[in-house]
Amino acid sequence: MENRSQWGTRAGFIFAAVGSAIGLGNIWRFPATAYESGGGAFFIPYLIALLTAGIPILIMEFTMGHKYRGSAPLTYRKMSKGSEFIGWWAVLVAFVISTYYSVIIAWAISYSIFSFNLNWGADTETFLFADYLNLTVDAGQTGSFVPGVLIPLIIVWAVVLGILFKGVKKGIEIANRIFIPALVIIFLIIVIRAITLPGAIDGLEAFFAPDFSKIGDPDVWVAAYGQIFFSLSIAFAIMITYSSYLPKKTDLTNNAFIVGFGNSSFELLAGIGVFGVLGFMANQQGVAVDEVVSGGVGLAFVVFPAIINEFPALNELFGFLFFASLVLAGLSSLMSITETYVAGLVDKFNISRSKAVLFGGGTAAVISLLFATQGGLSFLDAADYFINQFGVAFVGLVEVVVIAWFLRKLGDFKEHANEISDIKLGWWWTLSLSVITPLVLGYTMYGLFKQNLLKLFETDSGNYGNYSDTFILFGGWFVAAGALVIGVLLALTKWKSSEVAEEEEKKTGEG
Question: Which residue spans traverse the membrane (predicted)?
Fold first, then answer.
């Protein structure tokens, strides 16, 4: 009899996996990336990236978790003792992301409340940075706590840790069964409203109009693979952890296709909603759509409030629905991110789930308070850039290369997945993971290191975000490198798990 927690139903797992994949980046990263990378033409490299990297890695991680029945560190440990650090590295990357991701959800909670009276006023940029975030200190300084961020941040962690305390079936599964349908319904309402606005058609034409000349640009292909990579929650321990809770008989490849295409469908929906609204804004200002396009935090917390101000009717309701969708997308992702290190602690140190949630989640919550200070935005900006670029992407590259080239596990995984899945894996899966993904990720990492590392000691203005060398060194590079170093140290600590101890004894006896 297996003691490991399990999903109550297959649908519960799919809701949770899709909930993890659908995050803030789907709403504010994908539309701008697609527009800047050739509009409708971008869907060609995007679809190829989904089929040659996104879904193949999803299948691989689903198979790893399912076959070895463990968190990322335990899964890697069972594959090869020397590869355990990759699992911890991925978990530490997830840990760092959870500390600042929670803060952005807190902003969205605040803004959903601000929507009722349009509290952000006419100058939405000044409101965000000066009035709400109270950004009055230089990069690297903390200043004092900002109550408007701190209070909703505490609420975010209370909700997420409360759900995780309940466990996999009664906590994560039930929460996602509520959050994900609610998110889709809310966003459908947003899209229907957006496409009926004056000028919405111009926005949609700008979004979908294909610029085929960009398909020959390597940067567009890198952007496509990058978008797939970051939006599918692959390479930072989540999908390995979630699939370890699947029952022995389950359709792994089918699940991966459903999650992959479910995530991409929501991205397309987000693109339609965002560009419908941007078209309206361009129409109101009498300018071209390309003059109002933006992404990231600026799109959500500066541009959208400005657009909501111009709405002909029901602008308060639209504002609330938009920021509520950010809250739901953020919470479902934060749950999955936090679960990676909760599961890792339970497996490694043989402690109860409650203690792992309290220690792991509690530590992340305390660190997240840094981002609720007056200087929190600069710390958040640097940590986000470096941990995503040199954490997630780099872990992904190492993961694929180690598994495909060094451990040569793809054959075993293919056999395991094909035994229990309807869609059989063939040459395309092996070729994607052993050749295409390593080449694309390798090229991406080379470009990023060249762009950032070589600039570090040139001038103060040559760094990411024009931050100083000192701040980038400590706020960026040290954060990304720290995840790797602590991951290696955790891999070197002794396992308290009875499962691993029995395995070690068995190997010693056989020796």
Answer: 12-31, 43-64, 85-109, 145-166, 178-201, 221-245, 257-280, 292-311, 318-336, 356-373, 385-407, 427-449, 470-492
Are 56 and 432 in contact, with CB atoms under 8 Å apart?
Answer: yes
Contact, 82 vs 74, CB < 8 A? no
350: pLDDT strictly greater than 60: yes
Spatial distance between the Cα atoms of 49 and 217, rounded to a whole number of angstroms: 15
Amino acid code (one letter) for 226? G
Q: Which of 488, 489, 490, 486 is nearest to 344 (CA)?
A: 490
Q: What is the CA angle 357-363-366, rounded to 5?
A: 125
The residue-averaged pLDDT of 58-87 equals 96
Give the tokens for residue 380: 């958040």
Cα separation, 67 vs 76, whole angstroms: 11
Above 80 in pLDDT, residue 372? yes
Helix (H, G, I), strand (E, B) or coil at 114: helix
For residue 3 the two structure tokens come to 């003691």
What are the structure tokens assigned to 241, written together? 């952890």
Question: Model-level pTM greater than 0.85?
Answer: yes
Query: 449: which residues sit within 8 A by CB, 6+ positions away?
Result: 390
pLDDT (0 to 100) of residue 454: 61
What's the CA gap between 446 and 100, in Å, rounded? 26
Tell me if 348 sits within 8 A of 495, measured CB to CB: yes
How many Å from the N-terminal Cα to the C-terminal Cα in the chain? 28
Q: In the structure encoding, which two tokens stand for residue 493, read together? A: 């600590």
DSSP 103-169: HHHHHHHHHHHHTTTTTT-S-HHHIIIIIIS---S-TT---SB-HHHHHHHHHHHHHHHHHHHT-II
